[in-house]
Amino acid sequence: MKLRIPINTLWNARFDLLQSLSGLALALFMWGHMAFVSSILLGHDAFWIVSKFFEGYFFLGYGVPQIVSLVVLAVWMLLMLHAILALRKFPASWRQYRTLWQHSRGLRHEDTWLWWVQVVTGFALFFLSSVHLYDMFIEPELIDPYGSADLVWSGRRWPMLFLLLLCVEVHGTVGLYRLALKWGWPRFGSEARTRKILKRLMWFLIVFLIALGLVTLSTFMRIGYDHAPHRGELYTPSFIQHQGESLP
């Protein structure tokens, strides 16, 4: 006898898988993004090289900032898809929220509170990340040591970026923890031991990523503060300056 799965159940399963995959892709992208922006800690030249790499500068011989805009657009579309899929699981009314809150207080289960953390940070990210992505989409050519620092300091984006940092690292890392538990990978022996190890790893990553982000943000703020009198000027790396001086 062939088992027949109801259409609604089948589509819910597909949507659930798509939500998991989109969340995983966004979390991995944010780790890569953190590695990219934190290159400023290695110096102005390092950040310039990384930013121009994504513009195709070292492949084409010149930068195409529109490449960055296309990547930003793809990330924004993926973010919207993930948000829409996640909304399926949110309570639909105030009464449902109140009931869920009462159950959460009664259960006092840490993973239940982590779900609430996901809801709150996810809601905040919908707005904070949209502003950040918009900045990168409309002016990708300004992504360089001075242009980015000017936006952070003179453009007064640092308060928003501070909140974005907290929300994205907490939301993404908690999401990966919940994803690992949901799909059962990786495993470290028993379920209780796996949950314990994954939770310790989750908190370690949250602290590490936020600390790295704060150091990176403060570095951009310092550069922007020093560069404020020359706002609008972009950075020219030292090795290009030397090449220009050696020309006849």
Structural class: mainly alpha
Q: Which percent band covers the strand fraction?
A: under 5%
CATH topology (fold) name: 3 helical TM bundles of succinate and fumarate reductases
The number of distinct β-strands equals 0
| Overall helicity | over 70%
Distance between the termini: 85 Å
The mean pLDDT is 88
CATH architecture designation: Up-down Bundle
Low-pLDDT regions: 244-248
Tell me the overall shape. elongated
- Overall radius of gyration: 22 Å
Largest sheet: none
**Sequence of secondary-structure elements:** HHHHHHHHHH
Total of DSSP H or I helical runs spanning 4+ residues: 10
Number of domains: 1
So what's the CATH class?
Answer: Mainly Alpha
The CATH superfamily appears as Fumarate reductase/succinate dehydrogenase, transmembrane subunit
Describe, in short, the structure shown.
By secondary structure, this protein is mostly helical. Helices cover about 75% and strands about 0% of the residues.
